[in-house]
Specification:
The complex is a heterodimer of chains A (about 775) and B (about 280). By secondary structure, chain A is α+β, with helices and mostly antiparallel strands. Helix content of chain A is about 30%, strand content about 25%. In chain A, a hairpin with a 5-residue loop joins β13 and β14. The model of chain B has no long low-confidence stretch (mean pLDDT about 95). In chain B, α10 runs antiparallel to α11 and α11 runs antiparallel to α12. The longest helix of chain B has 23 residues. In chain B, a hairpin with a 2-residue loop joins β8 and β9. Classes of the chains: A alpha+beta (about 775), B alpha+beta (about 280).
Chain lengths: ~775, ~280
C-alpha cells in the first residue's frame, strides 16, 4: 500500500470548478468566431417537400445557410454505427437530412451567423414544407403487422435480433420447475441531463490544413477516428480533437453526433472559427437517450426456492437511427447480465432491436445493466412472494458462493471475484434489516404502508478485452493508453486516453502514479482529452477508467521504475540485483543502506543529461503502455431501501437508503462514495420521477425540465454507503468499476420497496416511474379486483 | 434560448409605464421577469417591447393598514415570505410565498407579476381567493380596485386591460389560514394548491373560505366545501365531510404527464382536508 491509493485525497480539479475557472467548450473564444444554429424538425416523420432559405440568407449578420445537400456535396459522410451484431440492418444517418426527417429534432438546415441571436432569428426564418408520414414510437409496437416503417428498407422496423444462453437448459428448467413466476414490464425511456449541454467549436488553419475541433466528448480519440474515416474526411494527422472540461456525460457524450461534423465543416466553408452550443431544449431532443425496453420474462425454481432457469424476451427501442454503440447496450451489456448474482443453469435471453420515430437510444449510466438488474430483481421478489420467503434469504440461498469464482455464467461472462453472501450480510447488518422488518410490522399494524426493498446486483465494468468486444460486434478495440513522462526535474506528466468529466481522474490517476513511483502527488500532473497531446485512447464509459486506464499507467510506471533502478544501480556502482527502488520515497539505494541512495529527481536528471548511463541505455524517461484487459471486472452491490407510501397523496417517501458495494480495491474512498451516491440518486430518479414520453405521433412530451423530473436533493434522505472489497484478479490495481453500480442497484431497490409497501393492498406491479397517480390507480385497480 | 429582438424601456413611474404600454405596439410589462423571460427565450412569447417597472420606487413596500396588509406589486416572493407583518398577520400568505418555485425564483419573482401572469400552477391565486384580496391597478383611466374573485378570468387571463399596471394588493389579515401544495416534481408549480381560511366563534366554525389552484385553468373557490364546514366544530369528521365536497368546484380539471385531471381532483380533496385542519388549528 502506497501513501495515496486507498486514501481520500481531495480532488485537485475542484478548486478551478468551484471558483468558476473551469474551461468548457462554450468558453472557447477565438478571434472572428461565428455562431452555428440548427433548424430542427418539428415533425417526427415527414417528407421534406420544399425549403425556402432565402429570407434567412438575406438577414444582416448571416454568413451562410446550408442544407443537407450541401453537406452531402461537400463530402460529409453519414454517421456510422460502431457496434454491429450479426445481420444488423443499419439505416442511413446523414449529418443533415436531405429529403426525410425521422424524429423530432432531426437536423434540417444549418445557419452560420455573426452572433447567436441572429442565428436563432435566421433559423426561425427558414421555411420548410413537410408532408407528414405515419409514425411509430413504441419498442414492441414497431414490430406489429402493418406498423409504419421508419425506413422502408428495414422490414418490421427490426434492426437486429440477438440471442444468448443455453436454450436447452432453459427449456428443461421450465419443464421441470415446481414454481414459475412471470412478469411483463417496461423499462422506461430516460433523458440524460448533464449540467453542461453538448457543444462543439472548430478552427481551420488554411496554411497547415489542420482542423482543430473542441467537443464535449467522453472520448476524443474515437471521435477523431470517426470524423476522419467516415464523416469529415480530414486525415487524422491533420485533425486535433480536444475535449476540455466537460460538465457531465453519463454516457450521452460518448457518441458521434452530427454537430461535431457540422461545426468544423462550416468553419472551413466560411473561413472562420465556429461554435455551436446546444440549448437545453436541443439537449432534451437530440442527445441520445437511455433504456426504453419492453420485456416479458419468467423465472423457474424448485419448491425449495432454488432458481433453475430464466427466460427473457426484450424489445429494445433504438430510435430512428443507430447511435454509435446502440446495438451493444441491449445485447452484450444486457442479456449477458441476466444471470445476476445467482447460480442458475438455464438462462436464455433474446432481444429485438427496433427502430422508431424517436431520438436514438444508446448508453446511459449503467447501459443495459440497469435494465437487466431491474428485471432480475423484480422477478426474484415475485419469487419470494410466491414462495412466502424473505427476499433477502432467498437471494442469499441462490447467490453464487464465493468459492465458485471465477464463475462462468450461462450467458458468456466469467465473473472475476465476489462474495455476494458477505455483501448481503453486510448490507443487512448496516441497515439493521431485522429491525426494519420489525418496524415494518409495527407500521403496518398502525395502518401505514411501509416497505423494505432488497437487491443484490451485478455489473460488468471496465470494457473490454478487445478480442471479446470484436467477437461481439465492436468495430473498435477497448484497450487504453497511458504514458508516464518523467521530466528532467523529476516532475511527472501523465497522459491518459481516459477522459474525466466529473469522475476525478486528475486526482485518482495521480494517486496511482505517485504511489507507483514513490513521488509526491503534487509533482504528478494528469493530462487528458486532447488528441494533440495524447496517444490514441478509448475514453471513458462503462466504468473503465481505473480498471483499464489506471492499469495502463501502472504498466508504464513499472517501465519507468525499471529504468530508474538501472540508472540508480549504475550511478551507485552496484549490481542491479543489489539495489532496491523504494516505492515510499522514490529513492534507489543499495540493499540494507537506505542512506546511500539517489533521489528520484537526481535519477530523472541523469536520464536526461545522459552523462553516465548504462552502456546499452537510451536517454530519456518516458514510457507508454497500451493495456488490453484480460476480462471485464464484476462489481456487485447489495442495497436496502426503506420507504413509506402516503395513504392519500400516494407519494413515496424514502426513509432510509443503505448501499453496500464491492468495487474491488478502492483508490479514493471519497470519490468512490461520491460516485455511488450520485449513481443511487440517478437510479432513484428512474424509479420515482424520470420519464421520457413520446406521443403516438412522435412528439417528445417530456421535452423540457418543466416536465422531465430530474431527481433533487429532497427526494432522498442521506445515503448510507459502505463497502466490502474482493479485488479483481484481472488488473494490477485489483479495482472494479465504481461509476454505475449505484444506478444499477437503486432502481430495483426502490421499486421493490414500494411494491413491498403496497403488498397488503394486493398491488403486485406498477410501471416506472412510481408516481403518486400510478400508485393511486394501481391501488384502485387492486381494490376493484379484490 | 435566444429571444427575438425587442425594445427595452425602463419606466420611472407607474404613469410612465401606463403611457408606454398605451403607446407602444405589442409591449409587455416586465417586473421580476420569471415567467416572461423564459417564455421569450423559448420564443413562446415574442413581445416587440418590454416596459420594465422593476425600479419604480415605493412599489415593493409591505405595510399593515388596520386589519389589512398592503403589499406593493414589486414585493418579491422572498420578501413576502420573510415579512414579519405578513408572518404574524397572515401566515397563510407567508406560507404561500415560501412555497413558490425555488430560492432564485423567490428572490426575483414579484407578487404583481405572478398575479398578472395567472398561471394555472401559480401559488398566489388560491390565497388571494381564500383571503378575499383586492388588487389595485392603474391604467389610462386612473386607478381601480378589482376583487380576487373578479380578477382571475381564465388560463393566463385576468381582468387587467393591456395597459393596466398592478400597483398593490390589499389582503385582509387572517390568523386561521394555511396553504398546502402538491409540488410538481419537475417544475415546482402547484399540481394542486389549497389555501384555506377558517374563522372560529367559540367552538364552532364561523367562517370558511377555500381557494384552489393547479386543478383548473384558473384558480377557483370551493364554496360548497367551505359552507359545509361552517356552523359546527372543526372536527376531523366534519373537515373530512367538507373536503369531500371540493369536486363541485372543478368544471374541467387539467391534466399533464404527471397528474391527470382526475388525480388532481383527488389530491384537491386530500389537501383541502389537510389545509382546513391546519387553518382551524391556527384559528383556535
Amino acid at each position: 500500500m502506497g501513501r495515496y491509493v486507498g486514501t481520500s485525497v481531495k480532488r485537485v480539479e475542484d478548486p478551478r470548478f468551484i471558483q468558476g475557472k473551469g474551461r468548457y467548450v462554450a468558453n472557447i473564444q477565438l478571434p472572428g468566431m461565428v455562431h452555428v444554429a440548427i433548424k430542427r424538425s418539428p415533425e417526427a416523420h415527414a417528407r421534406i417537400t420544399g425549403m425556402d432559405t432565402s429570407a434567412a440568407s438575406a438577414m444582416d449578420g448571416v454568413l451562410a445557410v446550408f442544407t443537407g445537400q450541401d453537406f452531402k456535396d461537400g463530402g460529409c459522410g453519414s454517421l456510422p454505427c460502431g457496434w454491429l451484431v450479426p445481420d444488423t440492418k443499419v439505416p442511413d444517418r446523414p449529418i443533415v437530412v436531405t429529403d426525410r426527417v425521422c424524429h423530432v429534432g432531426d437536423s434540417v438546415a444549418v445557419v452560420v451567423a455573426e452572433d447567436p441571436y441572429v442565428a436563432a432569428d435566421a433559423v426561425e426564418a427558414i421555411e420548410v414544407d413537410y408532408e407528414p408520414l405515419p409514425t411509430v414510437v413504441d419498442a414492441r409496437g414497431a414490430t406489429d403487422e402493418g406498423a409504419p416503417l421508419v425506413h422502408a428498407e428495414i422490414e418490421n422496423n427490426v434492426s437486429y435480433d440477438w440471442a444468448l444462453g443455453d436454450q436447452e437448459a432453459c427449456d428443461k428448467a421450465f419443464a421441470e420447475a415446481d414454481e414459475v413466476v412471470e412478469i411483463e414490464l417496461v423499462n422506461q425511456r430516460l433523458i440524460p441531463t448533464a449540467m453542461e449541454p453538448r457543444a462543439a467549436a472548430a478552427q481551420w488553419d488554411a496554411a497547415s490544413e489542420e482542423m482543430t475541433v473542441w467537443t464535449t466528448s467522453q472520448n476524443p480519440h474515437p471521435i477523431r477516428l470517426l470524423l476522419s474515416a467516415f464523416t469529415l474526411g480530414i486525415p487524422e494527422s491533420k485533425l486535433r480533437v480536444i475535449s476540455p472540461d466537460v460538465g457531465g456525460g453519463f454516457g450521452s457524450k460518448i457518441f458521434h453526433y452530427p454537430e461535431e461534423v457540422i461545426v468544423p465543416w462550416v468553419a472551413r466553408q466560411v473561413g472562420r472559427p465556429a461554435r455551436w452550443v446546444a440549448t437545453r431544449t436541443e439537449s432534451q431532443m437530440t442527445d441520445s437517450q437511455g433504456r426504453d425496453h419492453v420485456t416479458v420474462a419468467k423465472l423457474a425454481m424448485t419448491s425449495d426456492g432454488t432458481f433453475t432457469g430464466l427466460d427473457v424476451e426484450t424489445w429494445a427501442n433504438q430510435g430512428a437511427y443507430l447511435s454509435t454503440f446502440a446495438p451493444l447496450i441491449p445485447t452484450a451489456l444486457y442479456i449477458t447480465l441476466l444471470s445476476g448474482n445467482y447460480k442458475m443453469p438455464g438462462v436464455f435471453g433474446k432481444v429485438h432491436g427496433t427502430l422508431t420515430n424517436t431520438v436514438p437510444v444508446d448508453a446511459y449510466r449503467g447501459a443495459g445493466r440497469p435494465e437487466a438488474a431491474y428485471l432480475v430483481e423484480r422477478l426474484v421478489d415475485l419469487a419470494a412472494t410466491r414462495l412466502g420467503r424473505d427476499p433477502l434469504e432467498l437471494r442469499r440461498q441462490n447467490a453464487i458462493p464465493k468459492e465458485d469464482f471465477p464463475y462462468q455464467t450461462p450467458v458468456a461472462f466469467l465473473y472475476d471475484s465476489g462474495d455476494y453472501d458477505r455483501l448481503m450480510a453486510t448490507a443487512a447488518d448496516r441497515a439493521d434489516y431485522a429491525g426494519m422488518r420489525a418496524a415494518q410490522a409495527d407500521a403496518r399494524a398502525d395502518g401505514k404502508l411501509r416497505g423494505v426493498g432488497v437487491v443484490c446486483c451485478i455489473e460488468a465494468s471496465g470494457p473490454a478485452p478487445s478480442a471479446v468486444a470484436g467477437s461481439l460486434g465492436s468495430a473498435v478495440g477497448f484497450w487504453e493508453s497511458g504514458e508516464v513522462r518523467v521530466h528532467p526535474t523529476g516532475q511527472v506528466s501523465v497522459f491518459t486516453g481516459s477522459h474525466t468529466h466529473g469522475q476525478g481522474h486528475e486526482t485518482t490517476l495521480a494517486q496511482v502514479v505517485a504511489d507507483e513511483l514513490g513521488v509526491p502527488i503534487e509533482s504528478v500532473e494528469v493530462v487528458h482529452g486532447d488528441t494533440g497531446r495524447i496517444n490514441f485512447g478509448m475514453g471513458t464509459y462503462g466504468s473503465r477508467s481505473a480498471c483499464v486506464g489506471g492499469s495502463a499507467l501502472v504498466r508504464s510506471s513499472e517501465k519507468v521504475r525499471a529504468k530508474v533502478l538501472r540508472i540508480g544501480a549504475h550511478l551507485l556502482e552496484a549490481a542491479e540485483e543489489d539495489v532496491v527502488y523504494d516505492r515510499d520515497t522514490g529513492r534507489v539505494h543499495v540493499k540494507g543502506s537506505p542512506d546511500s541512495g539517489k533521489d528520484f529527481g537526481e535519477l530523472a536528471f541523469a536520464a536526461y543529461t545522459a552523462h553516465s548511463l548504462p552502456e546499452d541505455m537510451e536517454p530519456g524517461l518516458d514510457f507508454t503502455s497500451f493495456y488490453d484487459p484480460a476480462n471485464f471486472t464484476f462489481p456487485a452491490s447489495s442495497h436496502i431501501c426503506e420507504v413509506e407510501v402516503c395513504r392519500d397523496t400516494w407519494e413515496v417517501r424514502v426513509l432510509r437508503y443503505v448501499a453496500v458495494d464491492d468495487v474491488g480495491k478502492v483508490i479514493n474512498p471519497m470519490i468512490v462514495e461520491g460516485q455511488i451516491q450520485g449513481g443511487v440518486v440517478q437510479g432513484v430518479g428512474q424509479a420515482l420521477t424520470e420519464n421520457g414520453v413520446y406521443s403516438d405521433d412522435g412528439q417528445l412530451l417530456s421535452g423540457s425540465l418543466l416536465e422531465y423530473a430530474v431527481p433533487r436533493a429532497d427526494l432522498l434522505p442521506g445515503i448510507e454507503v459502505d463497502r466490502i472489497e474482493t479485488p479483481s484478479p484481472h488488473n494490477p490495481l485489483g479495482v472494479k468499476g465504481a461509476g454505475e453500480m449505484g444506478t444499477i442497484a437503486a432502481t430495483p431497490a426502490v421499486a421493490n420497496a414500494v411494491l413491498d409497501a403496497l403488498a397488503p393492498l394486493g398491488v403486485t406491479h406498477i410501471e416506472l416511474p412510481l408516481t403518486p397517480e400510478r400508485i393511486w390507480r394501481a391501488v384502485q385497480a387492486a381494490r376493484a379486483a379484490a | 434560448m435566444y429571444p427575438n429582438q425587442f425594445d427595452y424601456h425602463r419606466a420611472a413611474s407607474v404613469a410612465e409605464a401606463v403611457e408606454l404600454l398605451s403607446s407602444l405596439p405589442d409591449a409587455k410589462l416586465v417586473a421580476g421577469g420569471h415567467s416572461l423571460i423564459p417564455a421569450m427565450k423559448l420564443r413562446a412569447a415574442q413581445p416587440a417591447a418590454l416596459v420594465d417597472i422593476g425600479r419604480i420606487p415605493g412599489l415593493a413596500d409591505i405595510a399593515a393598514d388596520g386589519d389589512n396588509l398592503v403589499i406593493g406589486a414589486l414585493a418579491t416572493h422572498a420578501s413576502v415570505a420573510d415579512s414579519a407583518a405578513v408572518r404574524s398577520g397572515c401566515p397563510l400568505l407567508a406560507e404561500t410565498a415560501a412555497a413558490i418555485g425555488d430560492i432564485q425564483v423567490r428572490n426575483r419573482g414579484t407578487i404583481g407579476g405572478s398575479l398578472a401572469h395567472a398561471d394555472p400552477g401559480a401559488d398566489y391565486p388560491a390565497a388571494m381567493l381564500a383571503l378575499g384580496a383586492e388588487i389595485t391597478a392603474v391604467g389610462a383611466g386612473g386607478e381601480r380596485t378589482i376583487t380576487a374573485a373578479d380578477f382571475f378570468v381564465d388560463i393566463l387571463t385576468t381582468a387587467l386591460a393591456d395597459n393596466e399596471v398592478i400597483t398593490s394588493v390589499r389582503v385582509p389579515c387572517a390568523a386561521g389560514g394555511a396553504y398546502l401544495k402538491h409540488r410538481h416534481p419537475a417544475s415546482s408549480y402547484a399540481v394542486v394548491g389549497v389555501a384555506a381560511c377558517v374563522g372560529m366563534d367559540g367552538g364552532n366554525v364561523a367562517s370558511c373560505a377555500i381557494g384552489i389552484n393547479g386543478v383548473t385553468g384558473k384558480a377557483v373557490t370551493a364554496d360548497a366545501a367551505a359552507a359545509a364546514l361552517c356552523g359546527g366544530p372543526a372536527s376531523a369528521d366534519r373537515i373530512e365531510a367538507a373536503a369531500a365536497c371540493v369536486g363541485e368546484a372543478f368544471d374541467e380539471p387539467l391534466g399533464d404527464l404527471y397528474a391527470s385531471g382526475e388525480f388532481r381532483a383527488h389530491l384537491a380533496g386530500v389537501y383541502t382536508k389537510r389545509a382546513l385542519a391546519v387553518a382551524a388549528e391556527r384559528a383556535s
